[in-house]
Write a structure and sequence with these properties.
Chain lengths: ~230, ~290
């Protein structure tokens, strides 16, 4: 089977000697929706960083959508990133650009034509429900709206894989739920979604695959589980 | 596609300049101040060089013919001297002219007119070498020349002036080098600050899959414009400085008038602009390296 994520015995030790990941083996199929949960410092974010090549594992094998990520030359990293969408807790929007410009920016870097750019940006803003705020600046938006912009930017390339690193960490429960619903809708259209989170009740309500990290290792992996009930080791 | 990318880069560069107005002003101001110090120094050094060369040009070699040399022979000798390598000019002062001058001088000094005396002078050549350094060589050749009886040059004094000129040149070049390095360092530091202020933006660019070249281009263009703007201001300041200096000199020391007259100013301004643009673009590229490596 062609896995979307295919990690085999992946380990990473940070320069200061902290072992962030310890022989992690994980496979995610195309079209899956998976939560990565676990305490702070358990290696969730580090694992995601390996996937978009912010970090490189010391040992092990790692393929994302068929690409051998650790073997990627530095000059080819941008092309991997164009096949991934990534969103973060802190949104990472450019404060001096409008919603539209923030989203368009991701297309500009690929040298898209102006016509393609305009239609695609409108399309994706529609998808996240922000079509009417396209000329607003990030500081004029609520946290939930800002995260929607960041999602629109992540989706503008129509990536097969969307990575979300605690995307609801700065949002209230209602807004968080809306964002997760949006991620779920995106997943239903075929995009694989991997989301690292601390939000227990949300994970419990979703009944999706849950992967539990602890001390840099995977200690639980349940197909349709909850945050603690099914994945917490005895 | 290429056109839309070019348009995007140009628009990015321009809007970045206005978006980061304070940073832009600081970078341009720094470039302007450091480049005008450098430019002012280089021009002063060039003026000083002109001045010493001017002094040196006054040194000449005098050569005297033997007594009873015919006028025709003297004219032939003049032609030969002019054909010598290293000679830039040769003036023939006939013995009649020399005698008249001497008589007049004597008259002025003593208040008597010399009479009843046969002209004791010989024809004289006043010769200038193409450069001060070659004066001795020219003098030596003149001494070996047939028809020339005596050669005189102000050797000791000239060697001293040549030595001073040489020392000035060495000092000028080394100070200019140090200043140039300092200028490059200060300008690229101020540009590094503008890059550092935008490291988040660079991270986001990388996140959405911008290649390093794509990120670098607007930054380098921006740096280039910072340097160019600073250099433009520096040129204005230096031009103003030169203008007032030569005005001052022509008022107070009229004989130094030529000092700033034959400076290659256009070339100088163009090099200053080029230097500013180069340091700006290169400084940006170097400051970005750290962020693009990640």
């Amino acid at each position: 089977m062609d896995w979307m994520i295919d990690a085999e015995e992946v380990s990473l030790t940070y320069p200061k000697g902290v072992q962030a990941l310890d022989r992690v083996t994980l496979k995610v199929a195309p079209g899956e929706f998976a939560f990565i949960v676990g305490p702070t410092g358990s290696g969730k974010s580090t694992f995601l960083k390996l996937l978009y090549r912010e970090e490189v594992p010391d040992t092990g094998r790692l393929k994302v959508d068929g690409i051998d990520v650790p073997a990627l030359r530095r000059g080819h990293v941008p092309f991997l990133r164009r096949r991934l969408g990534v969103v973060f807790q802190d949104f990472r929007l450019l404060p001096q650009r409008t919603v539209e410009e923030n989203v368009a920016f991701a297309l500009h870097v690929t040298g898209a034509t102006r016509r393609r750019l305009r239609t695609r940006v409108q399309e994706v803003l529609q998808e996240v429900g922000l079509a009417d705020r396209s000329r607003a600046y990030p500081h004029e938006l609520s946290g939930g709206e800002q995260q929607r912009v960041s999602l629109a930017r992540a989706l503008v390339h129509q990536p097969p894989l969307l990575l979300a690193d605690e995307p609801t960490g700065n949002l209230d429960p209602t807004t968080s739920w809306e964002i997760v619903q949006l991620l779920s809708a995106i997943n239903e259209q075929g995009t694989t979604v991997v989301m690292a989170t601390h939000a227990q009740d949300m994970v419990d309500r979703m009944h999706r695959r849950v992967i539990f990290f602890e001390n840099g290792q995977i200690v639980g992996d349940v197909k349709e589980g909850g945050y603690l009930r099914d994945t917490q080791p005895a | 596609m290429i056109l839309s990318r070019l348009e995007f880069i140009l628009r990015e560069t321009l809007s970045n300049l206005t978006r980061h107005g304070v940073m832009t002003a600081a970078a341009i101001g720094t470039a302007a101040v450091t480049l005008s110090v450098l430019g002012g120094f280089l021009l002063s050094a060039a003026m000083l060089g002109n001045l010493t060369n001017d002094q040196l040009r006054r040194f000449e070699v005098a050569a005297y013919t033997a007594k009873d040399t015919s006028r025709q022979r003297s004219l032939e000798l003049k032609k030969q001297i002019l054909a010598m390598p290293g000679v830039s000019s040769c003036r023939l002062i006939t013995k009649e002219e020399a005698w008249r001058t001497d008589q007049r001088k004597y008259n002025e000094l003593v208040g008597q007119v010399i009479k009843d005396l046969k002209n004791p002078m010989t024809d004289e050549f006043q010769i200038r070498a193409v450069s001060a350094e070659r004066t001795s060589e020219v003098a030596a050749k003149l001494r070996r020349m047939e028809g020339i009886e005596q050669v005189s040059e102000a050797k000791v004094e000239m060697e001293r002036v040549v030595a001073i000129a040489r020392a000035l040149k060495v000092i000028g070049i080394s100070v200019a080098m140090i200043l140039m390095l300092a200028t490059a360092y200060i300008i690229s530091s101020s540009i590094r600050l503008t890059v550092f202020a935008r490291r988040r933006e660079i991270q986001i660019m990388q996140l959405v899959g911008a290649t390093n070249g794509f990120i670098r281009t607007p930054f380098m263009l921006e740096g280039l414009l910072h340097g160019l703007g600073g250099a433009g201001l520096a040129c204005l300041m230096v031009a103003y400085g030169i203008g007032s200096l030569s005005q001052f000199l022509s008022r107070t020391l009229p004989f130094l008038n030529s000092v700033s007259a034959d400076l290659p100013l256009t070339g100088f301004y163009l090099s200053l602009l080029g230097l500013g643009a180069g340091i700006g673009a290169l400084g940006s590229a170097l400051s970005l390296r750290k962020f693009l490596r990640a």
